[in-house]
Amino acid sequence: MSQEPGYSPSFKRPAEIMRMRRKRTRSDASVFSSPSGQGSTGSPGQSSSSPAGVRPFSPGPLFNTHSRSGGGIKRRNPFANIENTYSPKKKFLIYNEDGNTEATDSYKIRTRTEKEGDGDMSTGVLPLSVRLTEAEKQEYHQDSPGKKSLTFSEDDSLFEEDEEDLKTPLLKSPQAIAPASIAPPVCTEYPADWSLKTRLLFTSPLTLSWAEQPKAQEQALGLVQHCRAQFDTLPHSVQDPKSCSELRCAFQQSLAYWQHPSLPWMSLFPRINAERSFTGKCSPWAHDRALQQSLMSEWSVSLSSLYSLLKARVCPYFYLCSYQFTVLFRAAGLGGSSSITALISPTTRGLREAMKAEGIEFSLPLVEERRKSRTGHEGEEEEPKKNMQECSDDCQPGDDGDNDDNDDVDGFSWLKEMGIQDKIKKPDSITIQLRAEGQTVSLDHKPESVVSVEGSHTFTLINFLINWKSVVAAAGSQAGLPPTLLAPSAFRGATMHTLKARSVNVKSQVGSTYQNISSLEITGPILPSSLHTITSLLRPAQKGNFSSALYTHIPTAVMNTHTTKQQCTRDSVDLSGCGLHPASIQQLQEPSTLGKTALTHINMNNYSYTWKN
Prior knowledge:
Blueprint: H1 14-33, H2 36-39, E1 61-63, E2 73-75, E3 91-95, E4 101-105, H3 106-116, E5 129-130, H4 134-143, H5 163-167, E6 171-172, E7 197-204, H6 216-228, H7 245-254, E8 256-260, H8 275-278, H9 289-311, E9 317-321, E10 326-330, E11 341-345, H10 349-357, H11 365-375, H12 378-394, H13 397-411, H14 413-418, H15 429-436, H16 438-441, E12 451-454, H17 457-467, E13 484-487, E14 495-498, E15 500-510, E16 513-526, H18 528-541, E17 545-552, H19 582-589, E18 601-605, E19 608-612
Antiparallel strand pairs: 1-2, 3-4, 5-6, 7-16, 7-17, 8-13, 8-14, 9-10, 9-13, 10-11, 11-12, 15-16, 17-18, 18-19
């Protein structure tokens, strides 16, 4: 197989390569002595613009005695072949200083990159950055005037690095910008969750043993700070959490909450579907009418006190937990509302009818949202209702029944023509009414049955709950026991309780090895402000790395539904005296974005939050 003169045919024949080297070395004397333009025509691999001492793609050593001051020998790749480097079809985009691009031959680029040692001749890999000299720019502008783009020359002498090369800026392709150089966004807060939690499980690679077994002084100081609504400022990162007294006091402060009634031998949360926890417990009020009235009287005073504190914005929110529903009262300014709001879930048709009878105006936000999504426009939905209302006002009471009968007669007239009218039973008015109310009854005990009450109607709702007999169970293990009241601040007749915290060190399997992981378990009725305060304390203590699993009281998950129509800004209502940490107030002021779901996981990695719902 014939080979081009001046190139290595194959690396399998070293003897032939050495003979070719000696032959070309002897011919260099005549080339160096003659002008560069004359001596370069005898070799096909030699460029016409190459100066003396440079031989592109030459397998032998090059002797540079004129242009290089060092007088050394520069060795080229002996196995380079023009067939595996040059491809006219392959083009590359070269970015100039102005940001414009121009396609150039990959042959020229490979020549440059192979010279600098940044690329691979066989694979044609282009380096991320390429330095261009002024001579290269002038050469390209001479070839293609009017274009502000750059290319490379086959002349190897132009690739020698000098001071001008170092001054030339680095031109990078889009691939040169690494994605890792763009920092991920840092999320410093997670959305507000208005549901009640029954259990929290935190895990962290750092120890969490500092959160349990507080000293007597630390526990007392934490409770005093909770009553006085005093908060310490912690550093961004705590080096030794176990020896940080401020951190341990703040943690004890975050565990406190207020409850009424308080029975030491009985857990009063949760109340829905919790008959097992009340079965077998001592309940002297079950058959004592006078004792039941005494309990309800004290409970009514506590509920009235809570609403007064809520109206004065001294108490931010509170929960009423009955055996069949839960009510969340929020002060004005929380949840994006400019007025006091109340959410009841789940509800039944009987409760809604009783509220209507007392004159309490309420809405079903999830039902309205689903109805709007079907119709698409709220205006199209209101017009038929107005037309039906106008028709009902114009008609007499007896006309409706006549119209119904006429419609029924017209609807069954075809049966009479067929002679089978006696075999078909006409539905009575009760059946028609039950079918019409079937959709309303189907909402009972479901998340879609959540009821929203706003403004002054919340005060009417308080009086309704105090006087409504069904708020207390008439039979069963919870008979005669008033609903449980939970609040983050003190109120009349309330008892202070603390959440239970327990730390355990476990080993978790990560791949083929076991890693020590510390866990912290917190149980009890965990309020939204308590959850936010605990996570805020774990952030500096665990150096911004922890994860948590949240266990939600299912009937309260729908409390995250955004119900209010009266929007308000964050600073429109002053809540500085409600007893919560300023950071917790800012979080709870924002409208909820979770819908009818609740948070199930909260993870912090490098001081950035991620969550699941």
